[in-house]
Amino acid sequence: MVSPNLALNEYVAQRQAAGDDIVHMGFGEARLPVFGPLADQLIKGATRNAYGPVAGCEEARAAVAGYFTRRGLPTQPGQIVLAPGSKPLLMALNHVLPGDVVLPRPCWNSYAPQAKLANKDVFPVAIPAECGGVPDPAALRGMIHAARALGRAPRTVVLTLPDNPTGTIASPERVREICRLAEEEDLFLVSDEIYRDLVHPPGTELVSPAEVVPDRTVVTTGLSKSLAVGGWRIGAARFPDSAVGERLRADVTSVASDLWSTLAGPMQAVAAYAFSEPPEIRQQLAACARLHGVVAHAVYEIMISVGAQCRRPTGGFYVYPDFEPLRDRLAGHGVSCSASLSRELLLQSGIAVLPGHHLGDDDQALRFKAATSMLYGESAHEQQMALDANDPLRLPHVDAALTRIDEGLTKLCR
Amino acid sequence: MVSPNLALNEYVAQRQAAGDDIVHMGFGEARLPVFGPLADQLIKGATRNAYGPVAGCEEARAAVAGYFTRRGLPTQPGQIVLAPGSKPLLMALNHVLPGDVVLPRPCWNSYAPQAKLANKDVFPVAIPAECGGVPDPAALRGMIHAARALGRAPRTVVLTLPDNPTGTIASPERVREICRLAEEEDLFLVSDEIYRDLVHPPGTELVSPAEVVPDRTVVTTGLSKSLAVGGWRIGAARFPDSAVGERLRADVTSVASDLWSTLAGPMQAVAAYAFSEPPEIRQQLAACARLHGVVAHAVYEIMISVGAQCRRPTGGFYVYPDFEPLRDRLAGHGVSCSASLSRELLLQSGIAVLPGHHLGDDDQALRFKAATSMLYGESAHEQQMALDANDPLRLPHVDAALTRIDEGLTKLCR
Questions:
Q1: A Gene Ontology molecular-function term (chains A, B) (predicted)?
Q2: What gap in Å lies between CA A222 and CA A251, rounded to an integer?
Q3: How many helices (H) and strands (E) does chain A have?
Q4: Which residue in chain A has the smallest CA separation from B253?
């Protein structure tokens, strides 16, 4: 089966092409136009048709190293590998890291299939009440011990900071707890920080496990979310500055050479520019983060107002509500699980969301992920207006989408 | 370990940067400038920052379908999946095809590591005397039966038409023999036809197994070799028009959605244009094929003149000589195997080639792969001159490279 998020995206595109008016929050795309200076770099990079180094050219690796260094993680270019998106890097890590894989429950829908393709078992662990992206530490410890008692060897934990799907950021204390556990239980951490530059409100503290247990952490990132170029496929990974890190980097580079050769040359030119973060890029990142924060918060308010529980979003562009308090009322609409909840929303109100069970969550729970970054408008013009607006919520097309969501959910929860 | 060809390429680039004058034939890159109209399409595609369908947009898939249809393989867009190079497609096929993998010996150096990453065993079978890219049919049958007797299940055979590394094209009769065997032994064929448009002399017949056993054959292709945009990473696969083919296509698309999402949007714009083959593209393909043919043949003549055996190259841009007739003479230079042969060539004469054991060949054999497409010059200007020349062999920089090869080999084989 195709990744459920990509499959839903294609289904909605077909329905929309057929004339259906759908409020599409079922796909994690930062739906904004290409930022002009990025396109300029792509054009400048058009002459780069040679393969070049597998890990990426020196200039691009140096730019990514600078990006991490500015975020409290001193980094040399030799610690960096670029790739066509962070997905193939996460897959390569599955091939080279030891043991089985622990995932937060719920989590991004590609982690588990990737682990299975690499012939690994997946151990899901529930997230804490206040945030996603990390397993609950006590539950994690319990699971590790239980798995070991059964002769299994979970050795890698994937974290998502900020989190997809909950739109929250694990607190520094939570991250440190997981890091302590990683030391005690000899675990390796893969920290997916692709939403890192989309923290809202500004100033929200984010501690990477690479700051706490540097020798045990690989960090992945990319431009897909922060700069809205998912369709350009630009990702990078940062490896520890140690003998272990160097071996991992060499192993991932080896897998890369057999799986994808290298990031396309013109995209390396884009990466070299964007990760060096000149003033206009910093400004664009801030504008995107602000827009995502405002709209995610508005959708969060709707979820709370209809009676759902929801963690307040603090990063990225998702909300992950739980309609458990409304179970009895929803039963009157034939809704009793994750699948029927999202189906009813789509059929009755034309609202597309990704049901929680596709993210590894309990299929009996009444949860879904809504990508609020899809509400900025259909055209590049509308999307740019949303990015430029002082108050994007007052734009008629954004307001209309929020009203549709409010009405659709109110109808369902009555 | 990084793919030996990519590793050697990086090593040579470092030596050249340090001032060494190396004739580099150790890397399979069509070293030519970007064809202008391709760059124009990349630039036009710069606004395509959305993810889009996993398999590629309708327009790009239709173009690839047309490309195959014009080559005697009627194809619908629904049979096509695009990707960032054919490498990830070949990897995805490893994940979804049943059983273990049979490879011609020697063959391209990424087939075996990919199979192993997918947890499959590799069964190498010697190529016939007259061509590479296919296993010798009798040896293939013997191996299949022997493997079965031992409880193993080789089910997929990878073919390379035209071949990398031998630069030859299996005759239609050879291909049909393999296809008959595939029917009789219930084997699946992966036909890597990435060099298909680089047949020389023009008119040389190439039969794809997809013409003979359509339900058992997936064909892969790409623009890296034919149009010299390896660094842009554009590949495609064609699946059978049958229930089995449709299931394979769906399975590969599923793996794709978790491994690489989709080919970058701007590259899809390039693919839609190039695979539709307007007149200027056909002309460029013909010019490239001619240049590759002339230079490969010149290097072949040198190999023969110094006393090596060598299959006459008829496609792609490689020669794969065998220095067995010179074993005694080479022993005087301390050369007794594939590794020492290529090392001596590099150290004594500054000629870089890829030793045969990196391609799965016997490490005691005196064979290497020479990529003759690397001899067109260092600068884009020199390369363009080679492409435009009536007789590229008369260009001083091409002539100088050929003289270096001639002298280096003559010295070694004296």
A1: transaminase activity
A2: 20
A3: 15, 12
A4: A2
Cis peptide before A201 (omega within 30 of 0): yes
Map out the domains of chain B with their CATH numbers.
4-30+281-413 (3.90.1150.10), 38-276 (3.40.640.10)
Q: Chain A contact for B364, CB < 8 A?
A: no
- CA closest to A261 among chain B residues: B87
A57 contacts on B by Cβ (under 8 Å)? none
- Is 80 exceeded by the pLDDT of residue B2? no
Q: What is the pLDDT at residue A2?
A: 66
| Residue B221 DSSP SS3 | strand
- Who's near B104: CB < 8 A, 6+ residues apart? B124, B125, B126, B127, B132, B133, B134, B135, B158, B159, B160, B163
Instruction: Report the pLDDT value the prediction gives residue B1, as an integer from 0 to 100.
Output: 61
B92 to chain A, any CB pair closer than 8 A? The answer is no
Q: What is the pLDDT of residue B5?
A: 72
3-state SS, residue B24:
strand
Name the residue in chain A with its Cα closest to that of B255: A2
Higher pLDDT, B347 or B272: B272
- Closest chain A CA to residue B96: A117
Cβ pair B375, B357 in contact under 8 A: no
Q: How far apart are CA A262 and CA B231, in angstroms?
A: 8
> What pLDDT is attached to residue B95?
98
Q: In chain B, which residues have their Cβ closer than 8 Å to the Cβ of A122? A: none
Q: How do strand B235-238 and strand A154-160 relate by DSSP bridges? A: unpaired
Nearest to B198 by CA among B372, B393, B406: B372
Q: Which of A389, A360, A365 is nearest to A376 (CA)?
A: A389
Give the model confidence (pLDDT) of A68-83 as tens digits. Answer: 999 999 999 999 999 9
Express each pLDDT in A227-279 by its tens digit: 999 999 999 999 999 999 999 999 999 999 999 999 999 999 999 999 999 99
Cα–Cα distance measured from residue A345 to residue A249, given in angstroms and rounded to the nearest whole number: 45
| Helices B243-259 and A86-96, axial angle in degrees (round to 10) | 90
Cβ within 8 Å, pair A231-B34: no
What does DSSP say about strands A235-238 and A23-24: parallel, antiparallel, or unpaired?
Answer: unpaired
Chain centroid offset of residue A7 CA: 17
Which residues 30-49 of B have a C-beta within 8 angstroms of A? Answer: 31, 33-34, 39, 42-43, 46-49
Contact between chains at B258 and A228 (C-beta distance less than 8 A): no
Give strand ranges (E) for B249-353: 318-319, 351-352
pTM here is: 0.96
Confirm or reject contact between A255 and chain B (CB < 8 A).
yes
Q: Hey, is the C-beta of B58 within 8 angstroms of any chain A C-beta?
A: no
User: What whole-number distance in Å separates Cα of residue B314 and Cα of residue B170?
Assistant: 10
Record the tokens describing residue B277, joined without a space. Answer: 């083959």
Radius of gyration for chain A, computed over Cα atoms and rounded to the nearest angstrom = 21
- Mean pLDDT over all residues of chain A? 96
- Give, as one character, the DSSP assignment of residue B34: P
pLDDT for the residue A309 = 98
Strands (E), B100-244: 100-105, 122-126, 154-160, 188-192, 217-222, 235-238
Cα A313 from Cα A299, distance rounded (Å): 10
Report CA dihedral (B365, B370, B371, B377) to the nearest 10 degrees: 160
pLDDT at residue A113 greater than cutoff 70: yes
Q: Average pLDDT, stretch A376-395?
A: 96
Q: Is B63:B413 a contact under the CB 8 Å cutoff?
A: no
Nearest to B298, CA basis, from B233, B395, B202 = B395
